Amino acid sequence: MTGDKTVPSVLIYDTTLRDGTQREGISLSLEDKLKVTKLLDDFGVAYIEGGWPGSNPKDAHYFEAVRKLDLKCAKVAAFGATTRVGVKPADDENIQMLVDSQAPVVTVVGKTWALHVHEVLRTDKEDNCNLIHDSLAYLKGLGREVVYDAEHFFDGYKDDAEYAILTLKAALQGGADWLTLCDTNGGTMYWEVERIVGEVIAALPAGTKIGIHTHNDGEQGVANSLAAIRVGAGMVQGTINGYGERCGNANLCSIIPDLELKMGYTCLPEGKLKQITNIARTVAEIANLPPDHHLAYVGRSAFAHKGGIHVAAMRRTAKSYQHIEPELVGNEMRVLISDLSGRGNILSKAEQFGMDVSNDAARQVLEQIKHLENLGYAFEGAEASVAIMLKRAQPDYQAPFELIDFMTVVESRQGRGLLAEATVKLSIGGEVMHTAAEGNGPVNALDLALRKAIAPAFPRINEFHLADYKVRILDSYNGSSAITRVLVDTQNGTHRWSTVGAAGNIIEASWRALIDSIEYGLLLAH
Question: Which of 213, 314, 382, 475 is the most buried (most CB within 10 A)?
């Protein structure tokens, strides 16, 4: 797509592997980068910027390895800068590393802003235009597709519009296939982007292909990208989850659904949009970063409903509090349970668990939840505890076991350090089970003793393991009498569930969470 807005398509240029890795806390191995490459290619993006081969050995090795992948959709781009002042492109080491990468696409960044020309490059405006022209002409002469990234374009344009346009014309004359306008500092407003991109398109020859590359320092990354596309940009650069230096780059996980679902453009092959939530979460996992649950479209909380009035309306029509169907982007609606819930939240959650709960039972469970949350419980992240409460509210439900009592002891033994021991007494089918176990702490000892008591009757419990254990002190100003909330995550294969307990005693809080966890696991197993 060029200045002609009748063609409803936009090319996606992903720079997660180059610009995205400049985020603090991200360090991708070569194998990580290849995994992301295959993921993005299957997703259907047009370009994957693999790295800067002139900046580090890992990126240089990436371009050797990526040639062995059988990519179906994406073109791989190598990133670099214009030749150095006073050096011909054929003699410039970084330019030669772009050539040696054998990438079919080369993306070259050059200066637009006179401030950078004078203070960073330490040259004059005319020489900068020559650097741009000569670098691109050299690479184009070698048969490469050339993308020109006009660094600091919007700041440069606001400072000297005439010179900013001259740099773009130098790039065009050098053979650039794409001119990408970059808001490198991320401070331009969307209405400025819309005006400036429109003026640029008007100032350049018809058919010039314009791209947009924005940063999120002013929280405008997505808005600025969409603004540029509205007036004629045909390629958008961005990253998965908005990863990038400082405040990040434009988030493709928002831009792509916005373009396809809100603006009528095509960005991906048909049917691929449903993969975007999985793409976002898989890339986060590869990057070893926790997924942002509150990201638009792809976050776990993007379609989560907590308020009772909202959920009641949602039960009548899903459109009442959702701007799209979550399934369009591979996500799902979730109903949260908390002291803000109404009866509709409980009924929806029961339906999710496949339980038939009466209105009276739902009301009783809701009252119990509100009471417990007042005591320090939080059921929003402990859906298995909610499921067990709903199950216990059914008149024909028989719990797999009943607690009689438990005891924990922590003592110091000579030569062995601190030792924790727990005893548990349960009733299972009318038979009393009395067991004991030692552990590396009182909670671990309780968990082991509980499993030891239950395993003879329910051997499936041996397949459950404690995946996570979190403790939060709710009112620390009360010192040692503060309420403690415990969240337990338990896993059985790929199935994972969360339960909660709260009390003035951390052992009691942990016990309550453990009991719910095991009872829920046994419910699943049967």
Answer: 213
